[in-house]
Amino acid sequence: xxxxxxxxxxxxxxxxxxxxxxxxxxxxxxxxxxxxxxxxxxxxxxxxxxxxxxxxxxxxxxxxxxxxxxxxxxxxxxxxxxxxxxxxxxxxxxxxxxxxxxxxxxxxxxxxxxxxxxxxxxxxxxxxxxxxxxxxxxxxxxxxxxxxxxxxxxxxxxxxxxxxxxxxxxxxxxxxxxxxxxxxxxxxxxxxxxxxxxxxxxxxxxxxxxxxxxxxxxxxxxxxxxxxxxxxxxxxxxxxxxxxxxxxxxxxxxxxxxxxxxxxxxxxxxxxxxxxxxxxxxxxxxxxxxxxxxxxxxxxxxxxxxxxxxxxxxxxxxxxxxxxxxxxxxxxxxxxxxxxxxxxxxxxxxxxxxxxxxxxxxxxxxxxxxxxxxxxxxxxxxxxxxxxxxxxxxxxxxxxxxxxxxxxxxxxxxxxxxxxxxxxxxxxxxxxxxxxxxxxxxxxxxxxxxxxxxxxxxxxxxxxxxxxxxxxxxxxxxxxxxxxxxxxxxxxxxxxxxxxxxxxxxxxxxxxxxxxxxxxxxxxxxxxxxxxxxxxxxxxxxxxxxxx
Length: 548
Hints:
The protein is of the alpha+beta class.
C-alpha cells in the first residue's frame, strides 16, 4: 500500500522498495548478498519467538483480566479481546505497512496468514492428530459463511487498487456484526439445529483411536453431557495404575473416571463445550490437557508406578504415599512459569529456555505478570506495556523481513504471504495440534476460521480507517500490487474448497482431509508467487534495486 500522490514509481518505472522507510542497515547490499543476510533471518526468527512469548504470557493474560473486570460474556470476549490477543502480530504488521513502509507487506501478511490458518493448520491437525474427529457442522458453517462475506467485501474494496474512508468503515462495522452473532451464538445454533445436534453440541465424538504406545485402542465415546453431574461427593473409584514406561492419551484418563472432578477441572470441562466461543473452548481445552499431562509427569518422577486415587470427588496423585498440597504446587508453578531464574528439566526444555532467556529476562523486569496474585491489580499496566513490546517486536520483525526480501529480490507482498504469515501463525498451529491430538479437532478448525475474521475486518479495516478518517481525512490508501486482488480471490476459493472437502469427507478431520488441504496450500503459494512475478499477466512493476 502507498499513500496517493507519489509519482516516483511511475517516473522510475519500478516500485520504490519499502526498505527506504526504515533506518539504514549496518550492512551494505553487497555484504548481505555474501552471507550477512543470514543474521537478518536469525533476527526475524527471534522476533517471531519474542512475539509468541509476550502475547501468550503477558498480553493474553492482561486481556483475560480486562474481560473479567468488564464482565463480558465468553462469546463476546472471545470475538474481541481474545481475538486481538492471538492476532496482535498480524495487526501490528498491517499498521506498520500503512503508516511506515507504505507497502503491501501488511496486506500480504494477513492474506497469507489467513490461508495458512485455514489450509496449513487444518492440514497439520488432520495428518498428525492420530485419530478421526467429527466436526460440528454449525460452528464450521457459521464461521465460514461470515468469513466468506468478509473476503467478498475485501475483494470489492481493493479491486480498484485504493481504499477510501467508507470502505474501511464498512469492514470495521462488519466486525461488530460478527460480535453480535457470537453474542447470540447459542440461540442461533438452537434455532437452526434444534435438538438433532445436541450430542455433538456438548463435545466431539471420537472414533477408535490408537494409543500412542500402539498396544491398545479404546472404543468410541462421547464427552459427557452437561446434564451429567460433574462433582459427586463421597464416591470412590477403583484405583487405576499406569506404568512409568507407557504413554497414555490424556483424554482416556479424563474419561476413565467420570464424573468425579475437582472444581477447576470441572469448570474447564464445561468451558470446552459449544456453549462458549471457539477461542475460549480452544484455550480451556489446552489448559485441561496440559494440566492432566503435568499431573502425570509430576506423579511419575521417582516412582515406577503411578496411582490415581479418586475420593470425595477429588482425584489425587500419590507420590511415595504423599498427596501434594494443591496450593503449594500452584504457587511453585506460578513462580517458575517461563521464569528467567528457573532452569526447566530435560535437555530440550533447557535449550529452549536458554534461547528464550534474553526475552524472558527483558519482559520479567519491564512487564508485570498479572497472572501472579501480587501483580493482578496492575493488569492495565501489563496490557499497555505488553502492547508496547508487541509494537517494538513487530517493527523489528517487519524491518528484518523487508531487508531479507530486498536482498533476495523478493517483493514485499510475497514475503508477507509466505515468511511473515507462517512466522506469526506457527504458535496457533502448535496450540491447535495439541488440542486436535486429544480429539478436540472441532475447536481447532473453528478457531482457525473464526480468527481470520478478525484479521480481515480489524487487521486491515482498522489501520485503513485510522489513516483515511483520522490522520488524513478523505485520503486514500493505495494498493501497490494488483496481484493482491488475485491472491484474495484464491483465498476465497481456498475457503470454499476447504468447506467442500470437509462436507465430502462427511465432516471428519482425518489424514485424507489433512493431505487434501496441505496440497491446496502448496498450490495457493505457487499461484500467488507466479502472479506477483507477472507469469500469467502483468500485475505490478518490478522492485527498484540499487547497483552492487
